[in-house]
Amino acid sequence: MIGSSFNKVTVSLSALCHNYHLLRRRAGENVKLLAMVKADAYGHGMIKVARELSKVGCESFGVAELCEAINLREAGIKGEIFVFLGFPIADAACFFDYNLTPIIFDIESAEVLSSKAVMRNQEIRVHVKVDCGMTRLGIFPEDFESFSAELAMLPGIVLAGVASHFPRADEADSDNTIEQFERFLRILPYALTKDDLVRHTANSGAILNFPETCCEMARAGIALYGYYPDGVAGIAAEKKEKLQPVMSFSSQVLQVKIVPAGVGVSYGHCFITSKPTRLAVLPVGYEDGLSRSLSNKAEVLIGGKRARIRGRVCMNLCMVDVTDIEGVTVGDEVIFLGRQGKDCISSDEIAGWMDSISYEVLCLFGNNNERKYIE
Ligand SMILES: *Cc1c(COP(=O)(O)O)cnc(C)c1O
Predict the structure, then answer these.
(1) Residues 78, 43: contact at Cβ < 8 Å?
(2) Tens digits of per-residue pLDDT, 100-139?
(3) Which of 53, 160, 168, 285 has its Cβ near the most Cβ atoms within 10 Å?
(4) Domains of the chain listed by start with CATH number
(5) Helix, strand, or coil (residue 79)
(6) Other CB atoms closer than 10 Å to residue 242's CB: what's the count?
(7) Which residues line ligand 1 (CB under 6 A)?
(8) Is 267 a catalytic residue?
(9) Cα–Cα distance between 59 and 55 in angstroms, integer?
(10) Ligand 1 atom closest to Cα of 170?
(11) In this structure, are residues 64 and 85 in contact, taking their beta carbons and an 8 Å threshold?
(12) Distance (Å, rounded) from C-alpha 303 to C-alpha 317?
């Protein structure tokens, strides 16, 4: 394509579907799998991902904000779309217009939804978020009984589900998840509803490590995209079929130069060559999601071999040391994330260099570059 970037994020739709089916089997075939597609599907492209997962039977999607949910509907996505982070009161009508499901955690939101429901002579199904120990969004378990009673008084509001979120489900040997799950189960008898309650609290970590917490529905995020929430430890501990990484990120060599010993590289000269050095200049910088904290740390693959970043990562450029890689020339493929030859750089490895988690790396690369979809 004319005018396209050197930098490309490639998304494997077959890997995505492999992960979806694997997670369905782990959660239990009777459990609904809600695909978390917030943050533009963790950098993989919300609409493309939702369309692909719809084709293989996914009927529930989760986003952070109302605007994302509206985008999904306008793109023709069917099924139930959950908005997790509340909504501006003025936008309450959108839940009816677009048939969306709100996750609520305050009575004011329920009241405004109720008044819209009455005006339209409709009902709206809501899910309540309970904070059983994450200490983030949600009402406290001890307030659930009165909250449920207040909801029951509001015309047009149907309590359809109760949700919670685990802070430590990625730790297979922690007691925290089961303790929190028991707290969740203890409040459920207080739910006043004519509907069959949909209970959901499992994230990727819980689906993989505590499948007994999946209830009627489980919310898969990172694992859909091929990564274990506990990173390399999760891959090592995997005894069954493995998740497959969905994203790769590549670029190409822009220039090759040889410099003598004692030369400073990039802004601040925070790398000085100790010997004659061959450098490849690459058109990737922090604007492309390559965090500046990767300066002097990250490695890339060129010709199937590893080359280390030298000096600071700039806004649109970085330099890597290719002294030990024969025959590197302008235009050669460079892999930042993914496989080349026998070697592979994972999002977990990059996250390790950044002191972060795979989630952030995927968002950074995916949401700052052109995406290409392959089977
Ligand atoms: C993001 C999110 C998830 C998915 O978490 P993963 O660890 O990526 O599986 C599940 N539930 C809620 C409420 C979330 O915000």
Answers:
(1) no
(2) 999 999 999 999 999 999 999 999 999 999 999 999 999 9
(3) 53
(4) 13-237 (3.20.20.10), 247-374 (2.40.37.10)
(5) coil
(6) 14
(7) 36, 38, 84, 165, 203-205, 219-223, 229
(8) yes
(9) 10
(10) 7
(11) yes
(12) 20
